[in-house]
Amino acid sequence: MILEHTLHELGVNPAPAPAELTVIFCGEGKPVGGHRNGPGVHDYYLVHTVLSGSGLYEVNGKRYKCKAGDTFFIFPGEPFFYEADDRDPWSYVWVAFIGSGAASHLSGIGVTASAPVIHGGGRKIPALYRRLRSRLLQADNASQITSLESAGYLRLLLAEFAIANRHMLPAAAAFSSDIERRIALAVHLLSTHYAQSVSIERLSQTCGYHRTHFSAMFKQSTGYSPKQYLLKVRMERAEALLATALPIEQVASSVGYGDPLYFSKQFHKWSSRSPSAFRKSLRSG
After folding, report:
1. What is the pTM of this model?
2. Residue ranges of the HTH araC/xylS-type domain (predicted)?
């Protein structure tokens, strides 16, 4: 006997473009009791959120009972099986997606092939599925716009899943003192804002300390003064850029030096070679 599956709506991305996150399709359905899917394997990520009823999801030899509010994730290449409850069959919404950043996004919210179920979720989740499906149902030939908008809704969904799954999120770095936290902030700022004009005095103020005390604590924590650390970040980035075809003047400006000559002098102090000599050594090596 063929078990029926009632499909309410299916929204399809007409031309999914490769990206960090790309929605392929999404839909909503209410299977009859006992309806089964699998065993099988997909080559994309597939997420189901149960709206009502219940069912069974099986992956990696483990079985998960899922009810209204629960979400289960199917991973590419992972054999799966799921089945609606005989007496109280589930209804669910789903979204399928691919992307170079998909695995890291899921692991970042505590979802992996060994932890593929989130129990419970916020009221925003069904509404986001509806908006996503509505957008795909209205899709036209402007595939880039469709992909961007649908990926945006997917990110909002992932954020809601993260809230529901907060107890499984990777632990944040623990700091034993306030100064450690502020030094970490300073390291982050120097590592990301090296291309700009950086004032150590202003950085100290941002972190809430006098420059002398801040510099001493920064060196105690990192082994470098703030100025030395900034130089290190800039020079290491310059070395990476010199491995490309980018003109030296542009390398200089890319790492925070408006004067290419001054950059060359600083780089020579750092590596004992001029930028052009360093680039030549990379090519000859």
Report:
1. 0.63
2. 184-281
